[in-house]
Amino acid sequence: MTVELEGLVRDIPDFPRPGVGFKDITPLLRDAAALHDVVERLAADWGEVDVVCGIDARGFILGPPVAVRLGVGFIPARKGGKLPWEIEQVAYSLEYGEEHLELHADAVASGQRVLIVDDVLATGGTAEATGTLVARLGGVVVGYAFLIELGFLDGRARLRDAPVRSLICYA
Prior knowledge:
With 171 residues, this protein is of the alpha/beta class. It has helices at 26-29, 32-43, 59-70, 125-136; strands spanning 10-13, 21-24, 51-55, 73-79, 87-94, 97-104, 113-121, 140-150, 164-170.
């Protein structure tokens, strides 16, 4: 059963700062049928996947159930300074500055097929940085799966190394 997802996303104007329209997914997450549908659709048709990588922070909500659905493990891509062991790190630009993203140095084995999951694809910088880290560790990105895509920001254009799927697109 496919659930109408867009109606379960709440628009919050001027959050976290003036001029930004935040897409709040918490109403969708509390709806069991919608959450089940999201997990099934994000996990479908990727071929062989060895591990799911969720991006800090809401990729930690969607990534683990997708990993369970696929029968594979989960690894977190964290913002700088959050991982307690040896790391691989990459700097990337945001519209308001620079950020760092990290994976544990042993998170991905050489040749492992990695599905990257997050809630929103905006400018693509964070997802691109995650793909860079996966590749540095010897992994292969098989795809990027997002609940929401802000198509008007064209983040998809930065993710040329693998297929991109989003369930809701705001043009």
